[in-house]
Amino acid sequence: MTIRLAITAGEPAGIGPDLCVQLAQQAYAQQLVVIADPLLLQQRAQQLRLPLEILEFSPACPATPAAEGQLWVAPVALQSEVVAGQLNPDNSHYVLATLRLAAQGCLDGQWQGIVTAPVHKGVINDALGSNSDSPVFSGHTEYFRDYCGVPEVVMMLATSDLKVALVTTHLPLRQVADAITADRIQRVSRILHRDLQTYFGLPQPRILVAGLNPHAGEDGHLGREELDIINPALESLRQEGINLVGPLPADTLYTPKLLDQADATLAMYHDQGLPVLKFHGFGRAANITLGLPIIRTSVDHGTALDLAGTGQADPGSLYTAIDVASQMASHL
Ligand SMILES: NC(=O)c1ccc[n+]([C@@H]2O[C@H](COP(=O)([O-])OP(=O)(O)OC[C@H]3O[C@@H](n4cnc5c(N)ncnc54)[C@H](O)[C@@H]3O)[C@@H](O)[C@H]2O)c1
Ligand SMILES: N[C@H](C(=O)O)[C@H](O)COP(=O)(O)O
Predict the structure, then answer these.
(1) Where is the signal peptide (predicted)?
(2) 132-169 pLDDT, tens digit each
């Protein structure tokens, strides 16, 4: 059966539309349906001097891959003109409309998964009038969690040989320590364990867990979260049969000797785990939201406004995200 995936083109002034146009330059086994304004894609194709024939998507038709040079598109109209590289809050509702259509279509069974090109969190929050203490839009991860009505999801970025999942996602650093609770560690670990089994063919995944503090707290001399919160949470999860090692000092967790014996790693916060992953494989990684009732993957990079419309954007991570979503769909 041909897999059908929806691809949201993301922030219109960023490199998302460029990547979608680049995507159309070859044929795929899957039917890839880009959710975007078709005029934006045509404009960007002209700017990049690349051929593009748009085919309007109909959910009633059987899944059919596009030929080289063609792109299936589910149209959503922009609100305002787009200049590559220049953010315009007037188009933020368009961006959110593409995410809604993608999520609802997946819940309705129109496509088997969603792959997202990057959005700009700042401009969406500018448009929605939120501030740094309580952003209305923290990211796709939290948006799809709320849209799908599930209490917890897990952000995991993965290359072919390294998986980094996070206990907390888009939080100001000041709030991170308070968010590391036994309850959250348990919910995140259970989702990670289950989805590694379900989607990645790992019957008994071995997961390395980082501590929060330097040297994993140095026996309580450099912070007590390991002793008071993380250790007891991991111990009770081990009683459930989840194979967790740690809490380990984060600085040496990501060394070959330990990683060679692990299926995945669990970092306590965004910039503890993701710089390692991106140093290891920026442009070859996918961002995967675990715990959703739908499959959702994404690129490992942002909107790269400096590259929009230049032809310099590397589509490697988008290809990886499509591959990973397809593999996940094939496990269902
Ligand atoms: N999946 C997503 O939606 C996602 C992911 C990360 C960041 N973001 C958002 O993107 C915006 C900009 O973030 P940032 O500046 O921190 O990161 P960025 O990834 O946009 O840019 C960081 C650097 O990497 C380069 N780069 C990024 N993607 C590239 C590609 N495909 N090919 C070649 N070079 C590439 C950029 O030119 C820049 O030098 C922020 O609003 C952030 O929240 C979105
Ligand atoms: N944390 C992600 C990264 O650094 O790549 C990125 O911000 C995307 O997050 P969402 O998928 O939640 O938008």
Answers:
(1) none
(2) 666 789 999 999 999 999 999 999 999 999 999 999 99
Based on its alpha-carbon atoms, the radius of gyration of the chain, rounded to whole angstroms, reads 20
Q: Which position has the token pair 């700017």?
A: 47
- Ramachandran quadrant class, 238 (left: phi over 0; alpha: psi -120 to 50; beta: rest): alpha
Token readout for 257 is: 């000797």
Report the 3 state secondary structure along 113-166: EEEECCCCHHHHHHHHCCECCECCCCCHHHHHHHHHCCCCCEEEEECCCCEEEE
Distance 193 CA to ligand 2 centre (A): 21
What is the ipTM score, two decimals? Answer: 0.98
Distance from Cα 83 to the centre of ligand 1, integer Å? 18
CA distances from 293 to 9, 106, 254, 256 (A): 22, 9, 30, 34
Q: Is 0.90 surpassed by the pTM of this model?
A: yes
Distance 218 CA to ligand 2 centre (A): 31
- Give the nearest ligand 2 atom to 142 CA: 12
| Contact yes or no for 110/4 (Cβ under 8 A) | yes
Yes or no: say if 266 and 250 are a contact pair by the CB < 8 Å rule: no
Note whether 158 and 317 are within 8 A (CB).
Answer: no
- Any known ligand binding at 2? no
Query: How large is the average pLDDT for residues 61-68?
Result: 93
